[in-house]
Amino acid sequence: MSDTVFTAKALTKTYVSGETQVLALRTVDLEIFAGEVVVLLGPSGSGKSTLFNIMGGLDHATSGQLFFRDLELTNLDDRSLTAYRRQHVGFVFQFYNLIPSLTAYENVALVTEISDHPMRPDEALALVGLEARMHHFPAQLSGGEQQRVAIARAIAKRPEVLLCDEPTGALDSKTGIRVIEALLGINAQLGTTVLIITHNASIQDVADRVLFFADGQISRIHKNEARRTAAELVW
Ligand SMILES: Nc1ncnc2c1ncn2[C@@H]1O[C@H](COP(=O)(O)OP(=O)(O)OP(=O)(O)O)[C@@H](O)[C@H]1O
User: Which family, according to UniProt (predicted)?
Assistant: First the structure.
């Protein structure tokens, strides 16, 4: 039996603004398994970020159920969702949101100071290959290196799940591949379940499974028989 991390049952999200309603997720059923690398592909507006926001405890579903292991997220109030998010989920976004006046080490330490069982900032930075740059400020680092600091910050609290929304969106191919390599390294070394939203179809080759989104639904799931390494990617 596979170990299930997320289970979605008929998960639906409707955004209402004034008289307009947008059905962003339409009865999504899904299971995500522990230790998987999953890539989410699909056109703009197809519901990928909406699903991430609900999985990450940043937003509420309109109907249906979402479980993180045995915990029903769709039953939680904002306070409990915040506790869930702090404990279990790491986020990586397209823009790194590092604090410019703090070094890489200090940016990571901000998170480790408020976590229960964190790794040391230098350990987290070593996992993304930045041990030699840890006393540099963001402005002294390349875009790809800054994103790797953001990944170190996200994993330092040892989350079970890493949600990455367009992690290579602002990067050229060489540095983007290095970032994917860092994410795969985290998955291999810590067993973290890694979900990646991307518009770059090449990245799907590193996944265990690829979820194709269309119009608020998962239209297809593809299982890769063999995962490619980041070094084998070209875009
Ligand atoms: N806060 C919001 N209020 C109203 N509508 C929203 C809101 N957030 C998203 N939507 C709408 O919900 C739908 C799904 O959006 P979502 O951001 O999940 O798509 P996406 O697949 O992540 O797109 P992208 O690839 O461009 O990030 C879109 O039609 C979008 O306009």
Answer: Belongs to the ABC transporter superfamily.
CB distance 48 to ligand 1 below 6 Å? yes
pLDDT band at 234 (very low <50, low <70, confident <90, very high): confident
Structural domain including 185 reads 4-232
Among the listed residues 221, 222, 213, the one whose alpha carbon sits nearest the alpha carbon of residue 46: 213
| 200/169 Cα distance (integer angstroms) | 8
- At 113 the pLDDT is 83
CATH number of the domain at 84, please.
Answer: 3.40.50.300
Q: Is 22 in the pocket of ligand 1 (CB under 6 A)?
A: yes
Instruction: Provide CB contacts within 8 A for 184, sequence distance 6+.
Output: 37, 194, 206, 229, 230
Ligand 1 binding pocket includes 54 (Cβ within 6 Å)? no
Q: What is the ipTM of this complex?
A: 0.96
E-strand ranges in 3-62 read 4-17, 20-33, 37-41
Residue 44 beta carbon below 6 angstroms from any ligand 1 atom? yes
**48-72 mean pLDDT:** 97
Rounded CA-CA distance 75/67 in Å is: 9
What is the per-residue pLDDT across 214-224, written as a single tens digit (0 to 9) for each?
999 999 999 99
SS3 75: helix
**Cβ(214) – ligand 1 distance below 6 Å:** no
Give the model's pLDDT for residue 31: 98
From 49, 53, 95, 215, give the residue whose CB has the most ligand 1 atoms within 8 Å, as the site to mutate: 49
